[in-house]
User: Which sequence fits this backbone?
């Protein structure tokens, strides 16, 4: 199995359920898994269910008092301690919350271990990417920060340089916070500007603590940014940083909530551009990290139209069997969608914008353009700290 891609999956992750009125409907996970199967991608993957993250693993990032609070809320949701961000509108407590959150974390940690040990070249956990959870608090629909835990486990295994690239529409604040003082971890987040979106962090001036200057990178995109601007920003910042940093493992977070149909944010990115970034991350892993790639899910609240297609593309890219954008969505899956949700499923694996294109940064920039201003702010804040030309 060495070198084969792994899909981390345990059906029990769909128990991560904040209730019927919460935007993070676990049907998005079930439908993604079904669409992966409908395309026959299982033939190109090893499907693996890792164990839940144990207490010692959770403590790599989270405080013991917080873990205790999650356990208590899991056993008695009515007694959730809101001082830990539990039992709130964003993060309602529910029975079994600790167990399923630890299971999701275990899938990401297992993915990282498999990639580093050579059991898999690429590993995907689309149930993960819960990047807002802090060491001592739940936040933004996230209880345990599986992305940070995967990175912390890699460090524990002796990895010296890890790059984390987050393209969720929201700032990857919890991962940045976990490694703010650690120059071994480069965190790069492309997200909607904090003026207009939760968690109101991720300003370009956030560049890492003393001793880790330039290890945090934030590209704060103006609301309304579409495909061309989003891809321009990604390619103007990420490849050059990875070439300089030379990561041994690339960890990426692929929240699908940058999409123009997402109800909780204000970017205008298509499924086709999301697929283009997935392909770029795969290529960058091979170019700079000997192919070692851990790919995670994240946000995404258009749970029928967008999330399953986006993450099925991600699985296809990791499996070495990219799904062509014009491919028809299997009819069996469309019938399942209607049976589960009474919604009509999309008919193709594209938003009709393939091939996507963008203007290369090296061809020049417009200092009066809002998108270019965002890219310039990020480059000017970080690149000189890393000895690069802004």
Assistant:
């Amino acid at each position: 199995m060495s070198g084969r891609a792994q899909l981390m999956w345990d059906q029990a992750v769909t128990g991560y359920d904040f209730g019927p009125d919460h935007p993070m409907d676990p049907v998005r996970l079930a439908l993604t898994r079904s669409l992966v199967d409908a395309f026959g991608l299982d033939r190109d993957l090893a499907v693996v269910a890792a164990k839940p993250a144990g207490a010692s693993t959770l403590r790599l990032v989270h405080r013991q008092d917080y873990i205790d609070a999650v356990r208590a809320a899991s056993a008695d949701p009515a007694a959730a301690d809101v001082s830990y961000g539990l039992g709130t509108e964003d993060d309602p407590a529910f029975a079994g919350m600790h167990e399923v959150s630890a299971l999701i974390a275990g899938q990401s940690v297992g993915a990282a271990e498999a990639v580093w040990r050579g059991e898999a070249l690429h590993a995907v956990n689309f149930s993960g990417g819960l990047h807002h959870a802090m060491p001592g608090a739940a936040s933004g629909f996230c209880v345990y920060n599986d992305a940070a835990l995967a990175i912390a486990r890699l460090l524990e295994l002796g990895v010296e340089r890890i790059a984390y690239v987050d393209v969720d529409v929201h700032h990857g604040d919890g991962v940045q916070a976990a490694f703010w003082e650690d120059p071994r971890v480069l965190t790069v987040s492309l997200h909607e500007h904090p003026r207009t979106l939760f968690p109101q962090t991720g300003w370009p001036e956030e560049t890492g603590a003393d001793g880790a200057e330039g290890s945090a990178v934030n590209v704060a995109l103006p609301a309304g940014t579409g495909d061309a601007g989003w891809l321009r920003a990604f390619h103007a910042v990420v490849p050059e940083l990875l070439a300089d940093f030379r990561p041994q493992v690339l960890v990426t977070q692929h929240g699908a909530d940058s999409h123009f149909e997402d109800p909780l944010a204000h970017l205008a990115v298509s499924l086709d551009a999301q697929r283009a970034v997935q392909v770029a991350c795969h290529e960058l892993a091979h170019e700079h990290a000997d192919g070692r790639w851990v790919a995670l899910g994240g946000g995404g609240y258009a749970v029928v139209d967008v999330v399953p297609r986006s993450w099925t593309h991600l699985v296809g890219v990791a499996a070495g069997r990219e799904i062509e954008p014009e491919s028809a969505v299997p009819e069996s899956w469309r019938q399942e969608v209607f049976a589960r949700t009474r919604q009509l499923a999309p008919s193709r694996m594209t938003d009709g914008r393939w091939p996507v294109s963008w203007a290369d940064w090296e061809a020049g920039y417009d200092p009066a353009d809002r998108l270019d201003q965002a890219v310039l702010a990020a480059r000017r804040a970080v690149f000189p700290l890393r000895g690069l030309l802004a």
